[in-house]
Amino acid sequence: MSNLVVIGGSDAGISAALHAKEWDPSVEVTMLVADAYPNYSICGLPFYLSGEVPDWHQLAHRRLSEIESAGIRVRLNTRALAIDPASHTVQVQTEGQAPEMIRYDKLVIGTGAVPIQPPIPGVDQLGVFRLHSMDDSFGVAKYLDTHQPHRALIIGAGYIGLEMADALRHRGLAVTVVEQAAAVLPTVDPALGVRIEKHLLDHGVAVETGVRVERIRHAGDSLRVSGSPTFSKDTDLVLVVVGVQPVADLARSAGLTLGIKGAIPVDRTMATALPDIYAAGDCVETYHRLLGAPTYLPLGTTAHKQGRVAGENAVGGDASFAGSLGTQVVKVFDWAIARTGLRDHEAVAAGYQPQTVEFTTWDHKAYYPGAHELTVRITGDRDTGRLLGAQMLGHWRAAVAKRIDVFAMALYHQMTVAQCLEVDLSYTPPLGSPWDAVQMAADHWLRVVRSGHGG
After folding, report:
1. Do residues 343 and 435 share a domain?
2. pTM, to two decimals
3. Tell me, what CATH number does 24's domain have?
4. What CATH number is given to the structural domain containing 348?
5. In the chain, pLDDT over 70 holds for what percent of residues?
6. What are phi and psi of 4, to 5 degrees?
7. For the segment 242-264, what is each residue's pLDDT rounded down to a tens digit?
8. Going by DSSP bridges, is the β-strand pair 78-84/89-94 parallel, antiparallel, or unpaired?
9. Do 11 and 66 reside in the same domain of the chain?
10. Where does a domain end: 213, 242, 271?
């Protein structure tokens, strides 16, 4: 009987463990989980803190008993300290116990990522939080209950920052979002970012862009956040959510040379350069399907897929990771904002001749009550007509997430913008139009490009 050890119990780790067991029921699978929360939805933390998900236990994708009933041995509060590839052993330590060695035949590293902690003086003091783990969320929840803050300041206007602005406004706090870039949500074009900023303002969120936070200090009973060029604001609670970085020290100390942004290089089977060791999830480089090269794209959807591939191959399979397109969506108050594929600057760097064209229409027939405007930005290659990417903004009931998925599927199959018009999409007046919004946007892109005008 072979022995598979999986380090990590989040998206990549649980997917690897479960799929390995499905692929080969005879394999002995041990999953090492650094905390007490295997297979919990970290993406759901803002909705727990908003109160929309009242019980944190509901964030569990599976109960511990369900994981164990699949034949997986789960060791909670157990950290991997070192990997010895030569002896096929991992040194581990369970909380309150002495370190020990366990042997593996195959190993999957799914150590994930941790929040970037910027070098801001005062970032470690009481009332300043990061948000990435269950324990992080408990710390914020406890502070909200015990200190009853009235004001919150969020450093970082990415996905988590905007979700937390929504969450804290939901709880009645006055919220300020501070972003170093020129517009909020820098993963989409500034043309959409400025509209998102107005949407935040309309919902009572103050926004400060182009600000580099340089210091956090106590000022009486408040926390004073200051930065350049001339920013200063007092608050009661600070969240620092400026991105994540891969947890790869364990892999590096085992002899692996790290790659982009310190992530673990893997091939498309999720194998590392060390024999019998695979890696997956937010700790690894990700093959980008459009670029045809590795990048760093820490996404839960990607981690699940990579973990599945790693788990299957660790027990004798021959799976391959098809690649990521960076497809993402976020809900901010009553809007949803999504993207997939490449933006102009990314496409230029990859050698394309991109043109981005914007189009606004209704999400369904305007004569049926409840129609909402939907803005679509399509990026395509001027020379070949190939679809390169798409961005979308609209009411969250306008099926933004599913419509961006249409573009993601088209990108997966390397379709042209024109071919998007040929796809047989569904239609009924309460839900769409005979030509769906994605197809109307594609047709508009073709007309603009043929006319030689810009977007």
Report:
1. yes
2. 0.94
3. 3.50.50.60
4. 3.30.390.30
5. 99
6. -110, 130
7. 999 999 999 999 999 999 999 99
8. antiparallel
9. yes
10. 242
Rounded CA separation 85/287 (Å) = 25
* Domain edge (last residue) among 242, 258, 278: 242
- Are 436 and 403 within 8 A, CB to CB? yes
How far apart, in whole angstroms, are the C-alpha atoms of residue 286 and residue 278?
Answer: 13
What is the tens place of the pLDDT at every residue in 203-227? 999 999 999 999 999 999 999 999 9
Question: Where do the H-state alpha helices sit in 184-330?
Answer: 190-202, 249-253, 300-314
- How buried is residue 293: exposed, middle or buried, by Cβ count under 10 Å (0-12/13-18/19+)? exposed
Is the Cβ–Cβ distance between 394 and 375 less than 8 Å?
yes
Pair 370, 447 in one domain:
yes
**Residue 43 structural domain:** 3-112+245-314
Flag whether pLDDT at 455 surpasses 60.
no
- Cα separation of 111 and 334, whole Å? 34
- DSSP per-residue string spanning 243-298: -EEE--HHHHHTTPPP-GGGPBP--TT-B-SSTTEEE-STTB-EEETTTTEEE---
Q: Are residues 253 and 108 in the same domain?
A: yes
